[in-house]
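Reminder: ligand-aware prediction takes two inputs, not one.
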Amino acid sequence: MSKTAMSESSAAQSEAGRAGPADSRLACLRELEKKVLWLSSWMIHNANHLRENRDGVKVGGHQASSASLVTLMTALYFDVLEPHDRVAVKPHASPVFHAIQYLLGQQSQDNLERFRSFGGAQSYPSRTKDVDDVDFSTGSVGLGVAMTSFASLAQDYVRLKGWAPKDLPEGRMVALVGDAELDEGNIYEALFEGWKHDLRNVWWIIDYNRQSLDAVVTDRLFGRIDKMFTNFGWRVVTIKYGKRLRAAFGRPGGQALRQWIDDCPNSLYSALVFKGGAAWRRQLEADIGAVPGVAALLEAHDDEALAALMTNLGGHDLETVLEAFHAVPDEIPTCFIAYTIKGLGLPFAGHKDNHAGLMNLEQMAEFKRRNRIPDGAEWDRFAGLDLPAQTLQGFLEGVPFAARSPRRYEAARVPVPADFPAPRAETLSTQDGFGRIMTELARDGGALAERIVTASPDVTVSTNLGGWVNRRGIFDRHPRADVFKEQKVVSAQRWGMSPEGQHIELGIAENNLFILLGALGLSHALFGVRLLPVGTLYDPFILRGLDALNYACYQDARFMVVATPSGITLGPEGGAHQSISTPLIGMAQDGLASFEPAFVDELSAIMAWAFDYMQRGGVRTAGAGSETNWLRDAAGGAVYLRLSTRPVTQPERALSPALERDIITGGYWLREPAPDAELAIVYSGAVAPEAMAAYRDILDDVPGAGLLAVTSADRLNAGWHAAKQARRAGDPSARAAVERLLGPLAPDAGLVTVIDGHPAALSWLGGVRGQLVQALGVEHFGQSGDLADLYRHYRIDADALLDACAAACLARARRRG
Ligand SMILES: Cc1ncc(C[n+]2csc(CCOP(=O)(O)OP(=O)(O)O)c2C)c(N)n1
Ligand SMILES: [Mg+2]
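Here is what comes back for the chain with thiamine diphosphate:
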């Protein structure tokens, strides 16, 4: 199974040292283990074979992957875990999780029967969609695993600040990891970062079934995993053999058997598991039959007993698993490599193609018979078990993990002060403005500033967070001096580290940034402490961490992403640092309200609103109602700000409350159009000066033209879709902000839109009232250059806008015939 000589579990080796669980406890756990395997298999079977299939689309579910984790999850949830522990479950073991919660009384039979159907138990555990207390959503493999590391960091952050509720002890952050998940690069990024932050209280339990989706994993992998974790300061506990196998190793011929197992290639082992007792016997007789004692050892087992012996791997042996878990004495991060068999107990155990394998009707009938489940008792919690229902129910009621319910916390909202910073200067970039706002917040203190925690993947200074960090310091579990300061080396950055620090400095891994924002952004629910996470990165590198960003949003984490610089406007730096598609990502990403302000007063209004929005937890009301309701403003969410390093002349104005509202809603007329105007220029973000220049020029020819500032294409667009839906649903009065905004224009007025990003971010505006659009933007990878050259090359300069205005007028005239 592995050519590397491996230690057994240290716990298992010192079996005598630690008293095992009482026999009666173990007996209950064994019964529940059987029930969990039954329920998880039946849930999937029911969904695939017994429910009406109206569309011919495969329902799916993973019986083999689930079976692989049954013992480990039984031990954890019914014995080892405490309510303050948090778990990321391997996505395709979702049925095991739901079955366990069902036995604990936290999941309904109805939801199990509707596994993978609308509103039923989710195919992959989901914090937001499941009702049974999922700690971390999973689905995109690797991300849930890393999430536990960053959740531990978040836990340390709030506890070291003394903010954790008194009655909430420190928990372990546990990931149940498929072995093939270890192929995902983000795991290593997280390992590295965890080491830097002196990670603790994390368990990664690897379901080492040596199978992925397509294949059996390479034999050489094992030693690598072991070494890698120890390199990063983790304890590695290998749970390889079950009790029965260990007993056999002690008998004559046993050492040869052990050696044979250790030398056996993964593929052969899997194939023999699938083929069963007779095949094991033939192979062992051929390979080691001549070794003294082996023949007798084999003879002492009939085929069934031999198959049971050879599949008695550590990860399927409750006692061994419990001993290993309970033997962990401290908070050192621990990786358990638990040997398992994919599909153990099911007819396709060990078969390399079993990932999506489902028992057919006959196989299920046989499985049901073996489990002694009477017809009609398939969902019964205790049917077919040997212990009385009352005993098992009593046991379940005493399960430590279930002692506290719900395990989700509320945290009071931190008010946003009315005098939120609004820096003023004749010329400023939005990035500079952001830095100044953060520095002012850091200086002025107050409750809001106290709960802000910033993070950046090695671009803290270059995204203008330096001022904030100088005042608020870097978070570290241990105070560490700023050596440069001590050595009196002059530097603009003062980077002292301590538990009081409020900035988490990350290495250059955007995946880590977003997973950390996800963890910090769930702190209110996980740890009962409200945090206001702000993460900065370069806009193009959103793509680098995009799945992790999506993952954080999927869990409804609350944070602010500040992405700067963006677009081709970063000028000479150019090349691979330019972002094109991010405005569309901002629009399409659920759970993320996106803004691209042009001026710093807009940015200030947006940030003040965002810090409140991030904390909202109201109910999303579907259907008719106001714009804010359509935008799900009561529910709140995360926020994305696309900023720029371009210095821009700031307007001299004081924002009225109405204008602030419009900026938040997504747009306002910087220059009002005349009634029935035939043309409007619409811009977003850093190209405001070009839009303004073109606007001034066009007034000679089109005196009534308007100039529309779009601060959030995302929210204008969302409001428009929602209003249309509301009208379709029978509310004729529903009207979106963007419809009102465009209202003063002639119905066939031309629109010229411009953004330093993909033009589709604004071109949809033509659809609102059926207007013709000339949409300018960037569609191709960029060049380096100054803005004059670049804007000319990509046709987003004032000349291009004027050309587009002319084309718009022409198109209008043509349309009128
Ligand atoms: C990011 C991502 N890529 C691909 C998949 C599809 N997928 C689901 S499970 C799986 C293989 C998992 O193997 P392993 O983690 O060893 O779990 P096992 O089924 O063996 O328990 C793959 C490729 C996914 N869920 N997420
Ligand atoms: Mg696997």
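The first strand starts at residue 86 and ends at 88. Residues 183 and 396 are 37 Å apart (CA to CA). We will return to this case in the review session.
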